[in-house]
Amino acid sequence: MTSSSSHPPQEHQKMPDTFADPAINKQAARTQDPGTDSTEILGAETQASETQVCETQIAESHTPGAPWNDDLVHWYVDNYGEHPINALAVELAVEFAGLNGSETLLDLGCGSGSAVRSAVSTNRANRVIGIDPSPAMIRIAREKTAKQSQDASPTSTSEFLLGGAEHIPLPDNSVDVVIAVNSFHHWPNPGKGLAEVARVLKHSGRLLLIEEIFEEQHRGMSAEEIIKQLDASAYNLKEFTRRPCVDIEVNVFFATPCGGNAL
Length: 263
Ligand SMILES: C[S@@+](CC[C@H](N)C(=O)[O-])C[C@H]1O[C@@H](n2cnc3c(N)ncnc32)[C@H](O)[C@@H]1O
Fold this sequence. Notes:
Strand order of the largest sheet: 3-2-1-4-5-7-6
Helix content: 25-40%
Bound molecules: S-adenosylmethionine
Strand content: 15-25%
Shape: globular
Radius of gyration: 18 Å
Number of strands: 7
CATH architecture of the largest domain: 3-Layer(aba) Sandwich
CATH superfamily of the largest domain: Vaccinia Virus protein VP39
Largest sheet: 7 strands, mixed
């Protein structure tokens, strides 16, 4: 997640112990806050990593194809885990992909599970699955979502599975809609990931990729690259648009596998 207001200035030359940006410094304050933050959930064994999060790591993590850096988990969850982009993604799945309350929704690269919780709390799908290759993210997602279930007793079911775009632990033809929110540019092999998505999608299945439009120093993946990749992976691009979301803007790609029968 980045914008001129939410990301620290780029400082590739030094590895700061603390950051000029107050959002990043929230990490230090957080250790005094006994709330349900990721530090509490993950336990002491991973706390050391959070002080090592630096601007260089953040920038590197946005390089197309760069693997997700798990040192960023605490930083990400505490600063962006509940960003409105997740609720927006679910609403875009309704708007573009026609997601209805009786379908199965997969959030691929679900992070700490905000979009899953949003889909459940708004009854936008019958079954909601979050998949992520980071065990830390999956652990936090389960903890946060268990709390939601206790508080609200939702009617939709949700579950979190360890996996990744290249190996989705679900059967063929089992999912109606896949969303991927700021995860596509981390997939090490986008072609293989898109083939896996096509495998798990039903014949009427739909895919929605949502990617933040990054400032130049946090490159992300350009819209052109994503559209080219969808085409090379035998997807029909049905819609491509740009949407504002609070402090950021996102590119939205709605596509269906060639040969599918989704409108
Ligand atoms: C920037 S975070 C976004 C998390 C969440 N979607 C959100 O918007 O809050 C990127 C996520 O992509 C996940 N990721 C990295 N490589 C992936 C892959 N090959 N397949 C699926 N997800 C991946 C990371 O573990 C991380 O949780």
